[in-house]
Amino acid sequence: MTSSCDSCVNYVYEEEDDCYYCLVNLDEDEMVRFLTDTQKSCPYYRLDDEYGVVRHQI
User: Fold this and answer.
1) Which three-class secondary structure string do you get for 2-54?
2) How far apart are CA 44 and CA 33, in angstroms?
3) Which helix (H) or strand (E) segment is 58 a member of?
4) Looking at residue 40, what is its pLDDT?
């Protein structure tokens, strides 16, 4: 499963800095895997599904 940061719940826009940030704090090993691109998908990826709550209520 490949993931895109653009559609992740943890990827948020910070108005003060005028850029996007990931809210997940990676440990040292995870950061190395991320920077060297050895991990194919993010284990913290969650789809930003705005309608998930509505579907749950139905």
Assistant:
1) CCCHHHECCEEEECCCCEEEECCCCCHHHHHHHHHCCCCCCCCCCECCCCHHH
2) 13
3) none
4) 75
Could you report the per-residue pLDDT of 5-52, keeping only the tens digit for each?
Answer: 888 889 899 999 999 988 999 889 988 887 787 777 888 888 877 776
Cα 22 to Cα 14: distance, rounded to the nearest angstrom: 10
Q: Which long-range contacts (CB under 8 A, 24 or more apart) does 21-28 make?
A: none
Residue 1: its H or E element: none
Q: Angle CA(6)–CA(4)–CA(17) in degrees, nearest 5?
A: 35
Q: Flag whether the pTM goes above 0.70.
A: no
CA–CA separation, 50 and 58 (whole Å)? 15
